[in-house]
Design goal:
- The complex is a heterodimer.
- Chain A is built from 5 helices and 16 strands.
- Chain A is an alpha/beta fold.
- Chain A folds into 2 domains: 94 residues, Translation factors (Elongation Factor Tu (Ef-tu), domain 3); 149 residues, 3-Layer(aba) Sandwich (Rossmann fold).
- Chain A has a 7-stranded antiparallel sheet with strand order 4-3-7-1-2-6-5. In chain A, strands 11-10-9-8-12-13-16 form a 7-stranded mixed sheet, with helices on both faces. Chain A has a two-stranded antiparallel sheet with strand order 14-15.
- Chain A is globular, with a radius of gyration of 18 Å.
- By secondary structure, chain B is α/β, with parallel strands linked by helices.
- Chain B has one domain: TIM Barrel (Alpha-Beta Barrel), CATH 3.20.20.
- In chain B, 30% of the residues lie in helices and 20% in strands.
- Chain B has 8 helices and 18 strands.
- Chain B has an 8-stranded parallel sheet with strand order 11-8-7-4-3-18-17-12. Chain B has a 4-stranded antiparallel sheet with strand order 5-6-16-13, with no helix packed on it. In chain B, strands 1-2 form a two-stranded antiparallel sheet.
- Classes of the chains: A alpha/beta, B alpha/beta.
């Protein structure tokens, strides 16, 4: 596998809910290389405002069609500019980068837990897992119903989705992690999660107390994206000195590698949103 | 490439004994140990790869956040995270040597003795073209005063390293000084074979929501296009005053930027933050310099050095 640089042609870039957008890009060379859980490093402007690339999770890929979808939330200058790109414009893509999810080789039962925009890296994981005839359940939580509209994309490929919304407008009213109470950990061979740090901490604890293998995907601001600048490091365990590079060693880590601090606001421990 | 009128331009540079096949290097701390960028370009074709700053012992670096983007630039406070000189020599150098990469080691320390000791470790290891000295480190024996901001300390540290090594020595000057020419003179008095200019400018950023500095280290080094005019000015000043080869860098993003540095007085250039934006920047910049030389019939890159003059 060899990442590269490609000018992807934007086919569609649409608002799906509030500040959430989906961009579909034709980038055949990149699409062929993408593994679930990896990210693309995207240049939001061809001037110096902003200067750096933005790491975006790979949401979905159709390798044979050369198509990549990105689900992103507008949080600052870079993502605001991304949201302004129109169909037929080109966008410079570096990647795919990082260590993605460890995929089951054969049919297994998988539990996916996505919180908010953290659902993004789970879609392509679900697609590849379904191709390997895995049974996949997604617990998908968000603040409001509109953000949960992407659940249909999962259902279309045969994922069993349970929804939760904080405002109670759709599915279970409350936190997605409450849905874990209805799940039996040992029904699953693997648990994959991405979302706010406190949410991932609960999922990780649920998985490891039951002895279920699990992985989490972390997020950080990045400069190089390839492990050269050491700008995106994170201390996985506050009691163990030393840092990992989120861009190169991750963004996916095993739940056993991470020691979560209790009751810290999102972003404090892992930088995850 | 040869249009029949002009022979292929001679791009080779002798940077005070550091032999480069072309004038485009990549800056320390922005290119890892080279391998990180192998998917994007032929690292053996880069003029020189200045590897990650190396200290005698391993360093963990600063707690995150370590970087923050700023207008046309970024601040970093990595804190010299590195595995120590022995790991560099045994895990990274042989690979680069076998690939035929022109390697410049970047060394750092917190005392004169540190610098001398880490320099001595390189002796007898083939495949290092020269030493770049990071002198923007605090001197713990002088109350944390940065080596690079005091002419006497600059001279002392360069002299101490020269005594320990047979390699060309190139201190990387800190721009956080009042008189860069005075510092450059001190470096040459200490025996510097070349100068690397400039290191980052010290700066900071504040998170107004949380009312705290963004970087855990509070201060960080500013790099990127924002610092280019400062770098050009300092290189111009030093080149006008002294006859010493300069490796110029500070916000180079493309060939035009690089040519500005060469015309200001740099014999070669280094790309730092630009690598993050364009991982093929070193290749693209070199290509642009070659095109410029072809268009203007410049035979040797040396013919352009310091040629920016008021007419």
């Amino acid at each position: 596998m060899m990442p590269g640089l490609e000018n992807g042609k934007i086919l569609d870039n649409r608002q799906v809910a509030g500040d959430w957008y989906v961009m579909d890009v034709a980038a055949p060379a990149t699409a062929r290389q993408c593994q679930p859980g990896q990210f693309l490093h995207i240049r939001p402007a061809d001037n110096y405002d902003p200067l750096l690339r933005r790491p975006l999770s790979i949401y979905d890929v159709l390798p044979d069609s050369g198509l990549i979808s990105l689900l992103y939330r507008v949080v600052g200058r870079g993502t605001s500019l991304l949201a302004k790109f129109a169909a037929d414009e080109f966008i410079n893509i570096m990647g795919p980068l990082g260590r993605g999810w460890s995929m089951p080789a054969s049919a297994e039962n998988l539990l996916l837990v996505g919180g908010g925009i953290g659902v993004a890296p789970l879609m392509y994981l679900a697609r590849v897992a379904r191709q390997r005839e895995c049974r996949v359940r997604l617990l998908f939580g968000a603040s409001e119903a509109a953000q949960l509209s992407g659940a249909a994309r999962f259902e279309k490929i045969g994922v069993d989705v349970k929804r939760a919304s904080m405002d109670g407008s759709l599915g279970y009213p409350g936190r997605v992690t409450d849905l874990l109470n209805d799940e039996i950990a040992t029904d699953y061979a693997r648990v994959y999660t991405c979302g706010p740090a406190p949410m991932m901490a609960l999922v990780a604890r649920w998985a490891s107390t039951s002895g279920v293998w699990g992985e989490v995907s972390l997020e950080e601001h990045m400069a190089c994206g390839v492990g050269a600048c050491l700008g995106c490091v994170c201390q996985l365990d506050p009691f163990q000195p030393g840092y990992v590079k989120v861009c190169k060693d991750g963004p996916v880590f095993n739940v056993d590698q991470v020691r979560w601090m209790q009751q810290t606001p999102a972003g404090e421990v892992t930088g995850s949103e | 490439m040869n249009n029949g009128h002009h022979p292929s331009p001679n791009l080779a540079v002798d940077l005070g004994g550091i032999k480069m096949n072309n004038p485009v290097a990549v800056a320390s701390g922005t290119f890892g140990y080279g391998r990180e960028y192998e998917d994007y370009l032929d690292i053996a074709a880069v003029g020189a790869v200045i590897v990650k700053g190396t200290t005698l012992e391993a360093r963990l670096g600063n707690p995150p956040p370590r970087i923050i983007e700023t207008p046309a630039g970024m601040l970093n406070a990595i804190g010299l995270e590195n595995p120590g000189v022995e790991v560099f020599l045994h895990d990274h150098l042989p690979y680069l040597r076998d690939k035929g990469v022109t390697v410049i080691a970047n060394l750092a320390g917190n005392s004169i003795e540190d610098y001398a000791a880490v320099s001595a470790c390189l002796e007898g290891h083939a495949g290092i073209a020269g030493i770049e000295l990071n002198i923007s480190c605090p001197n713990v024996k002088k109350g944390g005063l940065q080596f690079g901001t005091d002419p006497w300390m600059v001279q002392q540290v360069v002299a101490a390293v020269k005594k320990e090594t047979s390699l060309p020595v190139m201190p990387k000057l800190s721009p956080n000084v009042t008189n860069i020419v005075e510092i450059a003179h001190a470096a040459r008095e200490g025996g510097a074979d070349a100068l690397s200019m400039i290191n980052t400018l010290m700066g900071m950023a504040i998170d107004v929501e949380h009312r705290r500095p963004v970087l855990t280290n509070i201060f960080g080094g500013l790099s990127g296009p924002a610092i280019k005019p400062v770098a050009l000015r300092m290189i111009y000043q030093v080149h006008r005053e002294m006859d010493i080869p300069i490796l110029g860098g500070g916000g180079i993003m493309n060939a035009r930027d690089a040519l500005e540095f060469i015309l200001a007085g740099a014999s070669a250039v280094s790309i730092g933050t630009g690598n993050f934006v364009n991982p093929r920047a070193a290749f693209d910049v070199l290509k642009g310099i070659q095109d410029y030389m072809q268009v203007y019939g410049v035979q040797r890159i040396a013919d352009l050095v310091g040629k920016a003059v008021l007419r």
